[in-house]
Amino acid sequence: MSRHIAALAAGLLLLTPTIHSQPPPAPTLDRVGFPANYQATFKKLLTFDRPDNGQIRVVWANPVAADTPAWLPYPYGSVLLFESWTSKRDAQNNILLDENGRFVPDTLTTLFVKRKEPGFGEAYLHNRNGEWEYTGYRPDGTTQTAPAASGNCAICHLDAGAQNDFTFRRERFGIDASGAVPLATLSHYRFIPGDLTVRKGTVVTWYNDDQVQHQIFSPGAFNSSHMTNGASFSRKFDTVGSFEIRCSLHAGMRARVTVRE
Ligand SMILES: [Cu+2]
User: Fold this and answer.
1) C-alpha 211 to ligand 1 mean position (Å)
2) Alpha carbon of 183 to those of 11, 16, 212: distances in Å?
3) Centre of ligand 1 from the C-alpha of residue 180, in Å
4) Residue 146 and residue 222 in one domain
């Protein structure tokens, strides 16, 4: 028996891979370019709050990319830019929220940029993302993640899938969506959770995770617009009480928000 274990251990040792410190394949030249004027010339597509690390991610696109619907590949000349912000905290180090339930921006730290042009991306080899190339910049335009180190950008963005042209959360671009952190979701024709209890003054955000549209309302109180997949609706609850929540498209969808002091 112990001989078996010894043999097993030896086998495991042999199997232990050598650690390579070489970066994944990547281009060496910056063909992306820092879009210095993006705040004036690009369109803001989505502001996404990340509760795990308190960061705010703002996605911008140049006009040709901004006009591309989510089901089509991006045309050549497309540039997508992603601002990463830290957000403000309260004295207890909890993430601060504004009146709309959104994170409050503090410092702009990084601009992640990608550009699509004919023949781009070949240098990423097996990690190639179609014809995109990636570079990270600081707000002053200096390089933070050089092309030679951008192989990791490409590896991660493979997860977004070729069908999305290697771009995350496209279903939320250009629709009535927000990147507010939801307190509840609409899924499978249900409100999940069905009953919520919140403090007076809380902004509740519902996120439609369903493939079908929903339209939230509370009788006599409020109405959302039609929410497609990926859309959110936020509502501040300022009065103590119990609010019935329903969907105007599916009579069987019911939920309740209880507001306490
Ligand atoms: Cu519904």
Assistant:
1) 11
2) 49, 44, 20
3) 20
4) no
How many Å apart are CA 193 and CA 237, to the nearest integer? 17
The alpha carbon of 196 and the centre of ligand 1 are apart by a number of angstroms equal to 18
Write down the pTM of the prediction.
0.87
Domain membership of residue 73 (yes or no) is yes
pLDDT confidence of residue 169: 92
Contact 237/259 with Cβ under 8 angstroms? yes
Q: How far is CA 80 from the centre of its chain?
A: 13
Q: How confident is the model at residue 255 (pLDDT cuts 50, 70, 90)?
A: very high
Cα-to-centroid distance, 210 and ligand 1 (Å) = 9
Ligand 1 ion: residues within 5 Å (CB):
214, 247, 249-250, 253
| Nearest-angstrom CA–CA distance, 259 and 39 | 40
- For 28-67, what is each residue's pLDDT tens digit? 999 999 999 999 999 999 999 999 999 999 999 999 999 9
Ligand 1 centroid to Cα of residue 186, in Å, is 8
Rounded CA-CA distance 79/36 in Å is 12
Question: Residue 138: which domain range?
Answer: 38-172
